[in-house]
């Protein structure tokens, strides 16, 4: 896996509030990566840190495997909050100003960007006449100036109605198809599940889980086990039964059980009774409902 962003053990406190606690994750190139968590879970803090807006208390991160290389920063387009567009100016004029101030993109690229975000027909309308969804698409357009390889979006569908949300979703999917790696912070699990290939789930600054959406939101209990005698372990698990499938990995096995049926204690006891000493017993993935429960239940 080629990671465009590696985050390693980042912690950040605001006074007594621990906003992030030892968060590590990797964002694969070409992924649509959702950073999911309820309000206050640390998503914005994490994004601000990797954009150098905030300083972490500890830990590190690197883009493209090159820590803090200024040239690399130009490859990242961001939408952290709705930018301050001029209400009395058109989309074209606003993007011209963004381009002039940021130095990103070119005057010629503005029409291209407006086409991508589907605002060509309304490009001469005043910003104040735009719907919320159009404003948000223009903001994504501004982030696209300079042909970024990565797009970092904080709550891009905030406040939008279902049509507006669907338009942003469709836009994100199209951008991903162009090969742009997209990182989205959101508290809308449903949205993340629809458009993201990968996800990280934060709660109160802790990383609960990360992986592909299929892995993380799988509706099964997945238990990882290992022992010195791997073949003996596999046979032992097979004898116990109750699972849907078993996958042998290099140095461990993964056992899939219907959701809610894995019993770690019984597994451990059964292995022990059969002379197998486990050196790994891990409940790896949980269901969507369980995730929700963890996220919403204090
Ligand atoms: P939201 O979806 O509400 O933006 P979030 O997941 O992005 O939430 P953060 O904004 O990163 O979360 O906040 C994480 C925690 O840090 C929260 O408890 C928040 O109140 C606190 N926090 C964030 N910024 C500051 C600050 N400047 N000073 C003090 N506390 C802060």
Helical segment tally? 11
CATH architecture of the largest domain: 3-Layer(aba) Sandwich
Q: For the largest beta sheet, what order do the strands appear in spatially?
A: 5-6-7-3-8-9
Give the CATH level 1 class of the largest domain: Alpha Beta
Largest sheet: 6 strands, mixed
Terminal residue distance: 35 Å
Q: How helical, in percent, are the residues?
A: 25-40%
Strand content: 25-35%
* Assigned CATH superfamily of the largest domain: P-loop containing nucleotide triphosphate hydrolases
Low-confidence stretches: none
Question: How do the strands and helices of this protein lay out in sequence?
Answer:
Layout: E1 3-14, E2 17-28, E3 32-36, H1 43-50, E4 58-63, H2 70-73, E5 76-79, H3 91-102, H4 109-116, H5 132-144, E6 150-154, H6 162-177, E7 181-186, H7 189-195, E8 198-203, E9 206-212, H8 213-216, E10 220-227, H9 230-240, E11 245-248, E12 253-258, H10 264-273, E13 278-285, H11 288-296
Parallel strand pairs: 3-7, 3-8, 5-6, 6-7
Antiparallel strand pairs: 1-2, 1-4, 8-9, 10-12, 10-13, 11-12
Structural features, described:
There is one protein chain. The chain has 2 domains: 214 residues, Rossmann fold (3-Layer(aba) Sandwich), CATH 3.40.50; 78 residues, Alpha-Beta Plaits (2-Layer Sandwich). By secondary structure, the protein is of the alpha/beta class. The longest helix has 16 residues. The strands form 3 sheets. The chain has a 6-stranded mixed beta sheet, sandwiched between helices. A 4-stranded antiparallel beta sheet has the order 11-12-10-13, with helices on one face. The two termini are 35 Å apart. It is 34% helix and 30% strand. The chain binds adenosine-5'-triphosphate (ATP).
